[in-house]
Every structure is written in structure tokens, then in C-alpha cells.
TrEMBL record:
Family annotation (SUPFAM superfamilies): ATPase domain of HSP90 chaperone/DNA topoisomerase II/histidine kinase (SSF55874), Homodimeric domain of signal transducing histidine kinase (SSF47384)
Official protein name in the record: histidine kinase
Compartments, as annotated in UniProt: Cell membrane
Matches recorded under SMART domains: HATPase_c (SM00387), HisKA (SM00388)
Cited Gene3D superfamilies: 1.10.287.130, Histidine kinase-like ATPase, C-terminal domain
The protein's Enzyme Commission number: 2.7.13.3
Amino acid sequence: MKNNKFIVKIILILSILISAIGVCTAYPKIEKDSTKFSYNVFESEHHFLKYINRSNYALYYSTYKNNGEEVLNPSQLLLNLKSVKDDRYRINNYEKVFNENIYNWTDDLKDRLANLEYYAVNKSNSVVVERSNLKLEELINDESSSDKISEFKKIYEFYVIIDYDENGNMSISNSYNANKNEILGKLDELQRDNYEFEISSLEGAKINPIKNMTYIYAVPHNLIFSDHISYIMQNEEYYAYSQASYLFINIAIIFIIFVSLLVPYKEVKDIKIFKVIVNIPVEILIIIVSCAIAFIYNSSEIIMVTSIKGELINLVQLELNNQIKNLITYSLNIIYFAIWFSIISIGIFILKHIKRKKVRLYLRENSIIIKFILRILTAIKKGWNQLTDFDLANKNNSKLVKLLLINLLIISLICTMWIFGIIVAIIYTVVIFSILRKKYEKINNDYNDLLKLTNEIANGNLDINNKEDLGIFNSLKDEITQIQKGFKTAVREELKSQKMKTELISNVSHDLKTPLTSIITYIDLLKDENLSCGNREEYLEVLDRKSQRLKDLIEDLFEVSKATSGDINLNIIDVDIVSLMKQTLLELSDKINESDLIIKKNLPSDKVVLKLDSQRTFRVFENLILNITKYSMKGSRVYIDILEGLDNVTISFKNIAAEEIDYDVNYITDRFVRGDKSRNTEGSGLGLAIAKSFVELQGGSFEVSTDGDLFKVIIVFKN
């Protein structure tokens, strides 16, 4: 089993490493395929061209503002409100919004478009607004040399020339690294919709067209600022790499899922880390696994791009040679993918665990939300039961007051609803009726169940068991159940007593009859006048022994009878039970030697003095040791221990029975009960009964137990 688990761990680790290494070795292919998924950001309407459109308006306004002419705000230049038939407040509000847009777009040229170089010239007033490293206006000249154009292309990733005539018609005379017709169409659509100005709801408002303007926009290869342009170009690159990598990452994930599904659940369920993970609340597990998958898909392109370009180590600014950089780079990539593939594999095993345990049970034990809902429902149910369950033994005035107050509160709320209160009152009445009817039916059913239970008991069926909830009758059901148990106990004891009486009569008759029969027989033999002296002496010896046996039996019977009834006087004195035990063993040494038993004593070296009746205690020891000599296996060891505790003294006798112990030891201390049911051995069957009675009369406890064929008697006296 341990070998299987080790092999499973190796397989999982290898599959995860193979998947991670497989993705990393596919980097050259991913780099090559990324070109298939790339797009031209300079033709993107929402990522780039909308900012060019905004810049056209901002720079157009700047050429008039920088001309020195009196232009108070952009709306006076660009906004036409002659046809607007609206109140002055709305017009002022739209003018304010329009002006804020132009001002914000002007600020965007400084901040969000910091990498954008531009040259804008107003052909009406010859005002130029520009920001560039080279003289972009040279691109306007159609006679620019090819060398000059090549120089621009070396420096710039993109440029475009946009021209507006005196009627506001837009054209693109030249562009690099972007289709001019694509740009023209999208810019024309942006200007025509005018959605950038958010004034479409102002009926009659128009945007004046840009006239007599020429714009040159250029984006250099080297982006020195972190702005919107660098952001969209980086996103384009990441997008291309991520699209190219999905095939390889998905293959790796499918491989991990396949291996995880093949591995038997039983081989991983006992792994320590898995035991910890499955006990994490399901909501947290969902978040972790979801984040793992999202992180792989959304951040893998960053890892891949920086790794493929050799920039990953540069991020932490370490000065290393290329070989070490590549080794560290690919090691970090393998670790990165291995971690997240491991989380996906664990997620599969968690699903297996949930399936094995059943979804409902798993959610009850591991869901924070389900636990919270169940606690709330339990609290509501408990509160409702406390409020509606009535104890028939109490007056329940407080519960009635609470219910009436709740009812009063609901009625008061209904009264505040005016005409709707009538409808609510009807609904409330129907609900109350349904609740009361259901409650009445429950009480009625509970009463019938209780009545059925009492009838069954009355008819003598004491084994009937009703575990159902009887609501307000539960306390009464509990009392009836106690009466039922009392009846069963009384009947059981009565049957036991009758059985014991029968057995007692049978055993006493047998034990008295045996010596009595022998006495009668030998008396008849002695009547023979021709009997020899030797036989006569032998018969008299038998008569003496049998009469003594009969005498001992009758004395034992009276003794146990007196002990059981408590009609016995004890002579309590200080008794050293260690000396008493030694004395008993000495007096019974002949019996012990005859039985060929080995006595193993564990007695304290000092005296152990207790307040006892020495004669009765000696009788207890004597009966137990005689019992051992009769029923122990020949040549076996007998253990007698006296252990003194803080507040009690324990005396134990242990012996191996000669015959299999196939009787109930709970009845061995009853009167006339013997270990040999055939009653072939001598004895009255009262030895253990007398011993137990004498111990209990002196305040001790007497316990008999067995362990296989080991017979044990434990006596405990308090100090």
C-alpha cells in the first residue's frame, strides 16, 4: 500500500513537470505563431483612432487659441447651437460639458498620449502646434527624398498625414504601417457620430467641421513614456502571445486532468496535504482554483513575453551572463506552470472527494454559506419551537403573552397600510388559519399516537418502542416510557425469581437427597447381623462423613439465608488482612497440595489493617480458595494479590478453570449455582454466594469476571 502511494506521488509529480516543461519548450513555436494573432493597433477604432480624433479637435482649438485672437472657449469655435430650441439651462450645461471635453483632450496629449509626436498647422492663420524630435512637416513635402523617408521609418513605428480642406472634408495623403483607407473610414465615422461629445440628446446641436488643417501624427519605435500608447501596444503583444499559447497550455491542462482522473482516489485520500486541503471551506477552494485557472490564462503571456525576450531576469536587475539568465528564466517558468498545474490536479481530486462523499454531505460539512444558512434556519426553528411548544405541566403564560404581542405587532403594521391593509389582513388571516390547522392536526396525531402507545402497554406489549416526536405530549410520553421500562424490569425480575426458585428447589433437593440417600442405604446395610466388624467400621465412617456433609450443607444454607436477610451480627475489629490471608493459606495447605496448584502471592510486606469481622472475612478467603482448589486446572498457577490504594484495598484471586467457562458469570454468585452444571464435584453451590454476602455486609464490593478460561474475583474494601 505504501509502495502504491509512493508510485502515485511520482506519477503525479512527473506528469506535472512534463506538462510544465512541455509548455516552456514550446516558447519558440509560440513566438513564431504569435504573428498570426497580432493586430494593427494603429487601425483600432476604440484603442487608438478615437484618441487621434480627439486630438484633432484639441489641436484645432489650440491653433486659434495660440493665434492671439479672442476665443473665449471651445464651444464658441466648434459648437453650433443656432437651431437648438431648448431652455438656456440645458444649453449652458451642454456648452460646459463640451468645453470640458476639449480641455481634457488637450491634457491627454500631455499625459495619456505622451509618446505621440505631432505637427498641426492651421492653413487659415498659419499657426503651428507641434511636439516632435524630427521635423515632421518634411513629410508633407511630396518631394522628400527616399533617404529622408527611410530615416523617418527607422525612427517611427507609425505616422499618418491627415488633411482638412476649406469645406471640412477630410483626406489622408500618406501613412506608414497602417492602411490609410482604414484610418480614413474609421475617423470619418467617429466625426459623423459625434458620440465623443455626448450631446446627441440636445436637439438641433451641431459640431462645426474642422477646416483648413493639416495634421501629422507619429509614434516612435522607442517609447520612453508609460502612457496609453505603450499600454495598447504591450496589450497587443500580450494578446498575440496568449492566443498562440492557448493550444499548448490547454493540451497541458487536459493531460493533467487525464492523469488525475486515472489515478484512483484511494491512493491519494490518505496523503497528509490532501487531508488538509479537503477540509478547507469549499468557497475558499473555489476561489483558489478559479484564481489559478484565471491566473494561468491572464498572466502566462506576461511570463512568456518577458522570458522569450530575455527580460524576465532584467526585471529584478540582476547582472548575470546569458546562459545563467536563460537557465534561471526557464527554471522559474517551469516552477510557475508546475505550481498552477498542481492546483488544477488537486482540484480534480477534490471533485473526486466530493463525489465519493456525496455533494450534499460535503457542502453541509465544508461550505461556510451552507453552514451559516443552516445555523440561521436552526435558530429560527428553535426559536419558533420554543415559542409554539407548550409544556402541559406549566401554565405557559409568558409564551401566550409573546404570541399575542407578535400578533398585535403584525396587526398594527397591517393597519398602517390603509386600503392595502384589507388585502394584507385577508392574506394574514389565511396564513394564521393554515398554521393553526396544521398545529391542530399535529396535536391530534400526537394524541392518537400516545393513546396507541398506552393501549399497547395495557395489552401487555412491553416491547413497543415509539421514537417519534409527540410535540407537547413528549413529557407525557417520557413518563409512560419510564413506566414501560419499570414494568419490563419487574416482569424480568419476576421471571428470574421464578426460575431461581425452581432451580433452588431442584438444587437443594439434589444436594440434600444425595447424602441422605447414602445415610439410609448404609443404615440398611448395618442392620445385617452377619456384617463383619471391618465392614461395619467402614460403613460407620461413610455414615459419619455423609452426615457431616449434610450438616455442613444445612449450616451453609442457614448462613447464606441469614446473610441475605441481613439478620447477622458482625464483630468489627482491626484485622490485618495480610496475616489473615497467610493463615487461610496455611490452614488449607493440604487441599492446595492435593490439587497440585502453584500459588503466586503478591502481598504487602507491611500490615494492612481494616475494620472487619475477622471470622466472616476468614470464611470469605476460605470459600474462595476452596473454590479454586476444586475447579482449577491441575498444575496451573493461581495468583492472589493484595494491593493497597489511597482510599481502598483491592484483593484479587485469579485461576485457570479446568473446564471451559460456558456459563454466565453474572449468576455464578447466586445460591446453589456451581461451575459444573452436572454437580459431580462436592460442594453446596453456596461458597461464592456466602463470600459475596459477607463482603457486602462489611461494606465492600465483590465482582466476578472472566477472560477466556481465566476466572477472576475482585474484592474491594474501603480504608
